Amino acid sequence: MAKVKYYYDSENLAYRKIKVRKRKKFGVIALFLIASALFGFLCFIVLLNTPYFETPKDRLQAREIDNLKLNFSILNKKMDQVDGVIEDIEDRDNNLYRVYFNTAAIPDSVRKSGFGDINRYKTLEGYDNSQLVINTTKRIDMLSKELAIQSKSLDIILDLAKAKNKLLAAIPAIQPVRNENLKQLASGFGYRTDPFTKARKMHKGMDFSANTGTPIYAAGDGVVSKADNTASGYGNHIVIKHGYGYETLYGHLSKYKVRAGQHVKRGDIIGYVGSTGRSEGPHLHYEVHKDGNVVNPLNFYYGNISAIEYVAISKLANQENQSLD
Questions:
Q1: pLDDT tens-digit profile of 5-49?
Q2: What is the Cα–Cα distance from 78 to 36, expressed in whole angstroms?
Q3: Under 8 Å CB-to-CB from 294, ≥6 apart: which residues?
Q4: CB 207 within 8 A of CB 215
């Protein structure tokens, strides 16, 4: 039973019953209900923003984030494998392909260089998993750059391979006087006794003793740059430019069979043994130059002599005797 409330009427000096109007009663009830609804809504919003209460959408997003993290982890493992393959290719490129084609290796400072001071990843900053995304993107960019450099390197190797036959043909790879035509290998490369001054001096080539008129053969493909007697001491001589830094000289000839500007092939007869210039007797003085430096011709006789013949010639060439020029 509802409580009856009274108020004191001071004019009539009596207590009177308080009559509550129905409209006011409904207003109070309505106000209570609205306040309760607002309070409940605020509590709901607070709960939504706490980690203790997840909506189906939150759970779905959480699963998607976990899946993305797993995919990034798998991607990084695959990039580890790709990185290992690239390192193997780079190692073979530097230490096999480029060595074989006599080409300088690409340094790691070029292969592994960054992208300068530009912040390429600024748009990826500011997110919960920014570091994961940025690190993965950096790895992809570095792998892409290394692959681009390696691709260009292999293009160069391919061009060198196509030109390899020309290089092999240009190398002065045969003895310029055949063994059956030799009297002896008179003198080798290195310090020898000068036949005129008797002083010990550097002998820049090899002397092949043979009869006057013995054929002399081009040691490799090339172009005759000189066929004259203008160089002091060499008498009638021929110089062939083979390309790729190689050049050969044939001195003391009795006569020429080629002229300046003429193309020759390895094994072509270019002249004949003689004793012109500063010479003690009929022989061929033969020199090999690589990149402007004189080198030992003995290192190149692999095109027309056997291993046994090479050992015999090597023993004779390394004796410190008297040269013929």
A1: 766 667 777 767 766 666 666 777 778 788 888 887 787 777 666
A2: 57
A3: 204, 205, 287, 288
A4: no
* Rounded-to-integer distance, Cα 269 and Cα 253, Å: 12
Count of other CB atoms within 10 angstroms of residue 32: 10
